[in-house]
Amino acid sequence: MIKKFIHQFASPKTYLFQVTRAYPYIFVISILIYIISIFWGLFLTPEDFVQGNSYRIIYLHVPASFISQALYGGMAIASAIFLIWKVKLSAYLVKSIAPIGAMTTFIALISGSIWGIPTWGTWWAWDARIVSTLILFIMYLGLISLHDSFANYEKADKFLAVLVLVGSVNIPIIKMSVEWWSTLHQSASITISDKPTIDPSMLYPLFGSMIGFTGIVVCLVILSSKLHIFVREKNKSWIKDYV
Amino acid sequence: MKPQRKRRLTTVFLILISSAFGSFLIIKALDTNLDFFFTPSELYSQNIPDNKRIKVGGMVLEGSVKRDKTNIIFEITDYKNSITVNFNGIVPDLFQEGSGVVVLGYMNKDVILAEEVLAKHDENYMPPNLEIEK
Fold it and tell me: Among residues of chain B, what percentage have pLDDT more than 70?
């Protein structure tokens, strides 16, 4: 049963039909959640006792940073699946996630810089957390250009998957950078083991913004992967019927 | 699992392990150079020449801030050792006694002549009225 389900979903055709059906629901719900959370975070939560109002950029910075690392994690898993089981769809996903990841990492870096000006007194510092995130951004750009530099798609998929796996070592480094080294960036406020060090009145909209932002990014990944499926499967008969 | 897939699984693990090991070696070799700043205790244990630009971080010692026009003198502490900082300029809004700070500058006779003062804030966020209750 499960095996059959996985086999079916691994076919680009089923994937395309299913995500097309789910897309409008995910899109509307996540946009709504994000707008409500942003409104809640900007107007209904109190200001912070140290940072005043400037902390409110957290409702963009944290979701963007979280999702840029989560997308890379997703790419790494998809790459492993592609290399081991040769599932074509996961190679398509790796290729279509890369530009979205680059975009969210860029948002994380820019929002972090904007946040740094009023609080730290600088928009950039060569700090372990910031530099490892910059490396993540450059890596995303590198992955995109690597895939584009091959004329042969099969070869490109393979090299891309290997490079994604090699680069995945950066994700725990980003995560742990604030613990391992003395950094200007503060430690995590939300951890699995401890109580969050952020007041509940600010935490709930933060969770909301993370869920909403993740949903929006999932929608972008769906669009990007659909486009890539059209490109790659354009000679298949089902695509011709579909279009 | 088919033997072919098993072999590819091993390859995937080998890629992961070797890249993790490689970056571990790089990080090990860079050692404390990855730290954004020294703590005052580290500063005393390492001999730092006067002409080397350094970053020192810690807490602003309470009661140590003395202002004279645009000049500001304060002590950075890690609650074991502390060091005096002399800075001429505008400090960030978050600069306060008892809060985190990172300064960039040169050592001069056990005083840091700072060129830049950055404020560090921690991971605690709460409304001001809750702070008073605590």
Answer: 96
As a CATH number, domain B35-120 is 2.40.50.140
Domain spans of chain B, in order of start: 3-32, 35-120
Q: What percent of chain A has pLDDT over 90?
A: 77
Q: How big is chain B, counted in residues?
A: 134
Nearest chain B residue to A46, by CA: B127
Q: B99: which chain A residues are within 8 Å (Cβ-Cβ)?
A: 50
Radius of gyration of chain B (CA): 22
Residue in B22, B57, B123 nearest the CB of A186: B123
Q: What average pLDDT does chain A have?
A: 93
CA neighbours within 13 Å on the CB side: how many for B32? 8
Domain borders along chain A are: 16-242
**Buried/exposed A18-47: b ≥16 CB within 10 Å, e otherwise:** ebeeeeeebbeebeebbeebbebbeeebee
Stretch B68-96: mean pLDDT, rounded? 90
Provide Rg for chain A, Cα atoms: 20
Q: How high is the ipTM of this complex?
A: 0.85
**pLDDT (average), residues A186-195:** 88
Q: Which residue of A has its CA nearest to B6?
A: A84
Which tops the pLDDT comparison, A62 or A7?
A62
Query: In terms of DSSP H, where are the helices of chain A?
Result: 2-9, 12-39, 58-85, 88-119, 128-148, 153-167, 170-180, 200-232, 237-242
**Fold entry, domain A16-242:** Four Helix Bundle (Hemerythrin (Met), subunit A) (1.20.120)
CB contact under 8 A, B123 and A128: no
Q: Read off the pTM.
A: 0.91
Residues in chain B closer than 8 A to A121 (CB atoms): 91-92, 94-95, 116-119
Contact flag B127-A46 (C-beta cutoff 8 Å): yes
Instruction: For residues A5-25, give the mean pLDDT.
Output: 88
